[in-house]
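Standup, Tuesday
Yesterday: got the pipeline producing structure tokens again.
Today: sanity-check two examples.
Blockers: none.

Example 1:
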Amino acid sequence: MYIRGGFPRVKAANGRGPPQKRVLVMRPELIQASELLRQQTPESVEKAIGLLQNTVFSFSMKMCGHREDAEDTMQDVLFGSLKYLTNLKEPGELAAWLYTVTRNRCRRMRRMHPGSEKQHISLDELMPDENELRLLMQAAGEGPEHEFLRNERQDLLHNAVLRVPTALRLVLVLHDMEDLSSEEVARILGVQTGTVRVRLHRARLAVRKEMTRILKGLPEQPPIKGEGLARRPKECRELFANLSEYIDARMEPRTCEQMRVHIEGCPACVAFLKDLRAAIDRCRTLEAACDISVAARMRALMTQEYLRMMQATNAPHPQ
């Protein structure tokens, strides 16, 4: 997982070393909801459904950006899932089910956000030019008050996330906002873990670039051919293309150490790494809450229906 601050700890990659027990990584709310559902009491069921409501609504808002769409998705997904919840014994099964169903529901009803309809985005489009790197190095000396103001702009962050191409945004939301591991995201999307890692890196670079553009009030414009990292040393270009692997400590120890040495001696790489980490941290803070009255009304109805289904299932069959 992402390590906040400092350089990443070195660890074996690609499954090398002694086999380890699989560690489940996801939103604590889903783990708690799974435990509550197993208790099968009216109080525990209502709490569990409340936690599931928050998860589905927040995920839907991050993907579609429209409150009405997110509320409709939350209602349809949870009502349609009630009959399956008793069979989803493990948090991992519950997470895979909810995110898959919610993603499919969002896909059917999503109103496209300007800029998100783009299907492919090259790495060169996401890389900073010399002018931006110079500005990043200047900003590196600004105080914590400046960063606090940036972190408070949740509305701007949400807008930047919605402008990321849909396929990339899906990975960004699941991994950096819903706290799923790359392996869990790959399982939900039905792709290879390597594909998830490639998309995640481009999504992070894209939201960083969009957030920078929005905060500075810059117009949207296509990259100029020959700019980007073309003038940077080869080591910088290679590092920028692999920063997510470095930040998430998924590199071979030797390669990780080589990158660390280069970064410590390159002010431009230090500044960009700091900015990318800040973008990831901001993404992790983005949440969206459903209207309290709407959530309470729907939770009461779903709890009642779930308990009715439980009673019907547990009722003795006539002889």
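Example 2:
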Amino acid sequence: MPDQPNSERFKADMPQIPGVSQNGPRRSGVNNPAVRLVIGLFSVLLVVFLGARILFRPKHIEPKVVDPPPQIEVPSPAPDPNAKLPHATEEDPGVASVAEMSKPWTSKDFFFKNRLSGENIPALLIHLPTGSAAQSSTYWAFAMNAPYGNCKLEYVTDLEKLRGDYGYRAAKHPMVGNPCSRSLFDPLKMSNLPGDVWVRGAIAQGSDLRPPLGIEIEVKGSHILATRME
């Protein structure tokens, strides 16, 4: 036997495997069909995953600018004309001044507070052409609500209206009328009620039972006061 180098002398012989060449290249695991299948499935899953992330990625939505609702201008309530009228109370009974009531047949609306019920009763003050403006007897004040029923009285200064609407042909000066019953009350005449009570506003026409409810008037200096109602 020829001499061999020491390094080859003690080297173990490779086992001989049938069908496998000892000197051929070792087969790579990539060529294994199972490995290729796993790699293919993984690639598909990766593509699906990345596609899903891109597809379902939340989009940036610009906030929608909402216009403010239109402002509706609510009209303020109309001022109550009655609020400006004098309210005669026990503490403050003044309803007018002598200066503003200086002319005969001048009138002024006011409210008289009923001391028993607390109700503010619409009333009217009239300057009669019978005396000085500084005298209490020169004025007639009365409640505008008819003594019976729900009608409101009216002060009629238009003589043609007295002749036309009320059919009172003898009209010569302003009068107080009840538009519901067509009754007329004469401010210049007195009427005697049961109990020997004299009140102003005798019935000149109509079926009303009595004149309007009178309100007592006092003049103090330049002020006209409404002090008491029937």
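Quick observation on example 2: DSSP finds three helices and eleven strands in the chain. The radius of gyration is 57 Å.
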